[in-house]
Design a protein that fits this description.
The complex is a heterodimer. Chain A is α/β, with parallel strands linked by helices. Chain A folds into two domains: about 120 residues, NAD(P)-binding Rossmann-like Domain (Rossmann fold), CATH 3.40.50; about 200 residues, Dihydrodipicolinate Reductase, domain 2 (2-Layer Sandwich). Chain A contains twelve helices and 15 strands. In chain A, strands 12-11-7-10-9-8-15 form a seven-stranded mixed β-sheet. The model of chain A has no long low-confidence stretch (mean pLDDT about 95). By secondary structure, chain B is an alpha+beta fold. Chain B contains two helices and six strands. In chain B, helix 1 runs parallel beside helix 2. Chain B has a six-stranded mixed β-sheet with strand order 2-3-4-1-5-6, with helices on one face. Chain B is globular, with a radius of gyration of 14 Å. The chains are: A alpha/beta, B alpha+beta. The interface between A and B is large, with 45 and 40 residues.
């Protein structure tokens, strides 16, 4: 066994699919098992067992007993959002370093408790993010070099191009809610939460600042699946930071054929002297040829948004081949997990730890409340607003 | 002016039904002259109103007088727009970066 034993929580149809691949490959880590909290649904347990079989490691249907294993030094945690707070606390209290799927969890108090517990037990925490991608690091370098002058504002967008567009009922106007009972659905996710977490985390990281207030908007623009379960497929938030810097973000999902690649991912930095646009898809080559154009997969009732790796040939998603970034493929999970292991090895603070995850969650939740109430929400009042 | 041609071409495409029903616009303009900050703000706002065929119900802004203005517009029928105009004092070139999202497709422009 390698230096660090890794216990995975969650299985197929979660981000654990890609995290497992990296922990299995890393020279300092070995996967020692896969576990779920005991109350996990049989559907989810089955998916975890599938992943366990794939890596030929034992499956534990009781997380508590799996955490007693002294060969486990790191937990990679990707349970359902509703269970994340409780699961993270258990892992931290067991003294394990914790790699956390994003978003941290769905509840502000639970997020705060994760932060407090991680400090108390001196374990490393890192939430999955985009900060280690080369094109994102360039944005950080521009700010550090001060090449645009003092940073005044920034815009960050991340939209996933997956799912069948144009299915939302005509004239659908959804009223945003201020309550957050359920985050996990089979057919859809809350996209400002699930994808918006990337640009908001980046805005916090790039500015090294904390949000003071937010103004949010959510929409049901594209998909019937989101409309049916009363969640948004798109969100935009204006963030006013304490330093006076302002950020705008977009997070959401649109159709398979609405973008020539995986979707727009951009950072726009506005300095006092100049503005710079960084684009994950630029520089690139573009290919037009006599091959068949991208053809979206048929409707998959278990994964209509194409969120997970599909093993069934029927629903296999062909790669899009028109735009090829010249920086080459960037394995986001590999870069992120390598950085986490490096932080454990060198006793460094991860760039995006639980505290950063907590800060991001506050802005997302405040964004929903703002969208619902049509007003600016101050984060200092967030706990009181949630109690009402 | 380039921005007017860009907006007209985009609006024609929207009116042709190329992207279905327009839902959200992210329009970023980088200008080389402080006078164009206000001027382009109005041009882009009008473009958004034309795209959604109505006037917004909320218009929120954040700005730094000499550098940029960002506006978030909301319509009571659910549409939204995020507009940013900034001044580039170094490169002195005009640039536009636009994303228009419809329920069936999208329009992009990057100068």
């Amino acid at each position: 066994m390698n230096k660090y034993g890794v216990l995975l929580i969650g299985g197929r149809r979660t981000h654990q699919e890609m995290y497992a691949k990296v922990f299995n490959k890393h020279p300092l880590t070995s996967i020692v098992g896969i576990a779920d909290p005991i109350e996990t649904s049989s559907f989810r347990k089955k998916l975890s067992k599938k992943l366990a079989n794939e890596y030929q490691v034992p499956y534990f249907d009781n997380l508590n007993s799996a955490l007693e294993n002294q060969n486990v030094q790191i937990v990679s945690s990707a349970p359902e959002v509703e269970k994340r707070g409780e699961v993270a606390l258990k892992c931290i209290e067991a003294g394990k370093h914790l790699y956390l799927d994003k978003p941290l969890c769905g509840d502000i108090e639970e997020a705060k408790n994760i932060v407090i517990a991680a400090k108390k037990h001196s374990v490393k925490t890192q939430m999955f993010s985009m900060v280690h991608l080369p094109w994102v690091k360039k944005a950080k370098q521009e700010i550090t070099k001060n090449s645009l002058g003092k940073l005044k504002a920034l815009h960050i967008e991340n939209i996933f191009s997956k799912g069948k567009a144009g299915t939302v009922p005509k004239h659908r106007i959804r009223k945003e809610k201020t309550t957050f009972e359920k985050w996990t659905f089979t057919e859809a996710k809350r996209e400002m939460f699930d994808i918006g977490v990337y640009p908001i985390t980046l805005a916090n990281w790039l500015t090294k600042d904390s949000a003071k207030s937010v103004i949010g908007i959510t929409g049901n623009y594209i998909f019937k699946e989101h409309s049916d379960v009363d969640v948004e497929d798109f969100g935009s938030i204006l963030i006013k930071f304490k330093s006076g810097v302002n950020a705008s973000i977009i997070g959401g999902r649109f159709g398979w054929t609405s973008h020539p690649s995986s979707g727009p991912q951009k950072i726009i930095l506005i300095g006092e002297n100049s503005t710079k646009i960084l684009d994950s898809n630029n520089p690139r080559i573009e290919i037009y040829n006599n091959q068949k154009p991208f053809n979206p997969p048929p409707y998959n009732p278990l994964d209509p948004m194409g969120m997970w790796k599909e093993t069934s040939k029927k629903f296999f998603v062909e790669p899009k081949k028109t735009w090829i970034p010249i920086d080459g493929a960037q394995e986001i999970a590999e870069l992120d997990i390598n950085a986490f292991i490096d932080c454990i090895e060198k006793n460094k603070l991860p760039e995006i730890d639980a505290q950063m995850g907590y800060e991001t969650l506050k802005s997302i939740i405040a964004g929903y409340i703002s969208a619902s109430k049509n007003q600016e929400i101050y984060l200092s009042n967030l706990t009181d607003i949630l109690k009402i | 002016m380039f921005i007017e041609n860009l907006n007209t071409t985009s609006l024609n495409s929207i009116n042709n039904g190329d992207i279905g029903i327009p839902k959200f616009i992210r329009h970023t303009a980088i200008v080389n002259n402080p006078e164009n900050l206000k001027k382009y703000e109005k041009i882009i706002e009008d473009f958004c109103r034309s795209s959604f065929s109505k006037t917004e119900t909320q218009n929120i802004h954040v700005k730094d007088e000499s550098t940029y203005i960002t506006k978030l517009l909301k319509w009571d029928t659910g549409e939204g727009a995020l507009i940013t105009i900034s001044i580039d004092k170094i490169n002195l070139t005009e640039k536009f970066d636009v994303l228009i999202i419809g329920d069936k497709g999208s329009i992009y422009h990057s100068t």
